């Protein structure tokens, strides 16, 4: 006879633990999340201010010098500025409380706006840069390079400003990595804040794009060959298209529904399996709902002999313990059911596969 029942929880958790690097819910966790969001907002504002000033300077310098590389960089900065407006909107909208239409909250707003930012980088930055490179090749070289010194000076100032914004973003990434107990490289790959990663990607490509433009303009001025500057525009365009693709692919995965890190899934499964009343964890599903918010759905088979009141007590105790260990798991659903022999065999295979995947991730992170 089946004893299936579903018990859900939508807690707003408790303090952070070493096993919950992305948790920010609960009285203390909420404050931590707001503090992190405030730091991210400052980082975005710094990048926005730098990009607005730089975009104007590059546009004026590019028109004055007639430089395709400098105009490509102007388009790059305009795209970055608009994208940072998107990211600021995502910070505000993702903090809205759950409602009837969105019972799991608005955390995925960040992924949506990050996707729009990726589209903006591709269209306004990448495509315009390719256009400038092609136009430069078709127009040929100009003998008048009088405005190039001004253009080079503008790019030099831009490199300093973009570098300052990049340093600010890197400092915040390092802080997040320390909080999570992992290296910066791992935080960049697996961090849960798409807004910060987008700003970091924009600042990194901005610095590299300025270097390309500087080299292209200087070689054009020295050799008189426009091909160098056109090549710089193409390189800037290719760089922006690549970054846009990476950001869009990441946002797409999380909008569709992405599981949490395998190491965290392994910790969750181990915790459930070590509970004396749980005989088998037949299914464990997780999904990121936003920055520091995770859905956990598990189907478990309890040991025989428990009545309905005891089952309820077990579920409450298990979820209370999970709230203390993983505050980011703020939507928990436990389905208690009888497991067949086939279910048990599948559970063993799933556990083994998860152990191997988590071990591989740990080895990769250890080498990062």
UniProtKB/TrEMBL annotation:
GO biological process entries: zinc ion transport
Where is the Cation efflux protein transmembrane domain positioned along the sequence? 44-255
Subcellular location(s) of the protein = Membrane
Topological relation to the membrane, as annotated:
Multi-pass membrane protein
Give me the segments passing through the membrane. 42-64, 70-91, 111-134, 146-171, 199-220, 226-245
Q: Where is this region: Disordered?
A: 1-37, 347-368
Listed under GO cellular component are: membrane
GO molecular function of the protein, one example?
A: monoatomic cation transmembrane transporter activity
**Gene3D superfamilies to which the protein is assigned, alphabetical:** Cation efflux protein transmembrane domain
Keyword Transmembrane found: yes
Q: List where Basic and acidic residues composition bias occurs.
A: 8-27
NCBIfam families per UniProt: CDF
PANTHER family from the xrefs? Answer: HUEL-CATION TRANSPORTER, PROTON-COUPLED ZINC ANTIPORTER SLC30A9, MITOCHONDRIAL
Q: What name goes with this protein?
A: Cation diffusion facilitator family transporter
Q: Which organism is it from?
A: Streptomyces iranensis
Q: What is the lineage of its organism?
A: Bacteria, Bacillati, Actinomycetota, Actinomycetes, Kitasatosporales
